[in-house]
Amino acid sequence: MPNAFLDAAGSRHIACAVLTLVLLAAAPSADAEWTCDDPLVSLTANDLPAAYFVANDWVGSVVPDGAGGLYLVWEENAAKSIARCRIQRLDANGNRLWGDEGLMLFDMDDQHTPGLFEDSAGGVYAYTASSPTPEANFEVRMQRFGPDGSRQWGPFGRTVFQACGVPSYRPHLVSDGADGFFLSLVTNVTPNQVRLQHISANGDLLWGGGSPCGIVAVTSAESVFNAGVLADGAGGLFLSYDEFAGNGTGGLNVRAERLDASGNPMWGSGNGISVCNRPLDQFANAPLPDGEGGVLVFWYSRNNPDFFDYVGGQRLDGNGNALWTPNGEQVLPLSYYLSGVMADGQGGAWISVWKYGADDERDNHLQRVDRDGNSVYPSIIPICEAPNRQFGGALLDDRAGGCYVVWSDWRDTSFEQDLYFQHVSPAGAILEPVDGTPITAEPGAQGRFWAITSNDQGEAFIVWDNESPFFGIFAEKFPCTTTVAIDTSPASRAGSIRVYPNPFGTAAGSVRISFDRGTALAEDASIEIFDVTGRNVRSMSARADGRATFDWDGKDDGGRDLPAGVYWVRVATPNGSLASSVTLVR
């Protein structure tokens, strides 16, 4: 959220800056809270522990904890000659639960590129890759943490993959849809291989007879890149990858394979099937579900030798048959560069792209396609066309049919790297201000590496590494959903407000708005809802004692449906005011 005030048509200023938690700095206060107050970035580099003085930590992953908080993991490199990985848990108010500096994943060094997966029991799985010398000793380790931070698999975790004498690229893990995982990686010696493993919730290796070497799904005399996997819902997986053509086309081709629950190939006579073998290069993303037992595969393609400006796609059924135009369809106009794709929950996909503007500017855009490859919106949605460069828009499910787009932003100068986001409704409406809302816009560079997640309530979180003016790992929750009283003294504290679910859709009911008004307050409170222009669209009153709870059905005072968008809830009392944003989707 912004580190400033939003201007509603020049007539109303509402504080909506999320508290930024400095995770690797001094110990947090007992009442730390995700709030709509100014961000807590008051520490200087000299206040940080010596181990974190140099900004060289690498954010790995973040997932919700199932209780309103989150787990995050990072690679710790600062002031150390060998990398180690740490994990931290934040509660629903943003308090650190596992010490000031988090917990070590393993009692060993030389761990890199950490990642996380949710645990259905309330804990979390963590994994890392190690790269000792020689590279042939490459391995992947996993650890399981309980909700209390206890290491379930001992001080060294469990080895779930070893290179077995073959140097390999960093691993890619996805859920198998049943509390287990699929692991894929690519070897980097000729012939290239894509190796896979199926890992149970208990860390057992299910393929390859339990061998940590896994199974070989693809063997290519040429180079293989971008191997991505997706659970098929039947115990097996879909695999997509790029292979250097070596067939006169002079570029990379997109291929796909399906493996059954035992790891046996199901498509083609070897190395799967061809998805796109056009001339020049195609760089594929991981497959997405089409909602009918098949997959969508998207790629960005080189339409001419100098530019990657063609976004293509294909839909494959469960047997590997192409359902769109053979060799794929052009799903977006030329001159759009692919940033990311995400399933839309309806069998289609969100597609995030960027485009060159004037004076080498780069702008973010968004489109959505259905399972038949048709554009959902009449035209591509401009996400950010601010000055200078914005690209690399990552997509996040808002759990209400829409999505968040998060990106690195250089609108101030080429040296001022900030983080911004935009919220888009299922109908394609822009729900944040034009050109996005800043998550952090402090001086200097923020977010060389960052990770995002959302929970079932639609609450979104971002974690990033900060270089200037404060070194460390930072986290924020967005959009803003709660605020504290204007007067925070104990005698006159007005309480806090909660809006849930947020975003909300009227098709599913109403939004519940509740606030704890505090024991010192005896007067009635007025509840008002404003649109983004500052117009009062709904007024209500609350009880005079204890907790006030009421529902809003997305209608104005005249009983008319209000359009989708961002609205503001204000609770006014003689002792102070509370405010919160709420997003209505239709």
The oligomeric state is: single chain
- Could you report the average pLDDT, rounded to the nearest whole number? 77
C-alpha end-to-end distance: 23 Å
Number of strands: 43
Would you identify the regions where 5 or more consecutive residues have pLDDT less than 50? Answer: 1-32, 35-55, 481-494, 517-522
How many strands, what sense, and barrel or not for the largest sheet?
5 strands, antiparallel
Number of helices: 0
Shape: globular
Report helical residue fraction. under 10%
Structural write-up:
This protein is mostly beta strands and 586 residues long. Helices cover 0% and strands 45% of the residues. The protein contains no helices and 43 strands. Strand 26 (349-356) and strand 27 (362-369) form a beta hairpin. The two termini are 23 Å apart. Mean pLDDT is 77; it is low at 1-32, 35-55, 481-494 and 517-522.
Secondary structure elements and pairings:
Elements: E1 5-8, E2 12-15, E3 21-22, E4 58-64, E5 70-76, E6 84-90, E7 103-104, E8 112-118, E9 124-130, E10 139-145, E11 158-162, E12 172-175, E13 181-186, E14 192-199, E15 215-220, E16 224-231, E17 237-244, E18 252-259, E19 273-276, E20 282-284, E21 288-289, E22 295-304, E23 307-316, E24 329-330, E25 337-343, E26 349-356, E27 362-369, E28 381-384, E29 390-397, E30 403-409, E31 418-424, E32 437-440, E33 446-454, E34 460-466, E35 472-478, E36 496-500, E37 504-505, E38 511-516, E39 526-530, E40 536-541, E41 547-552, E42 565-573, E43 576-585
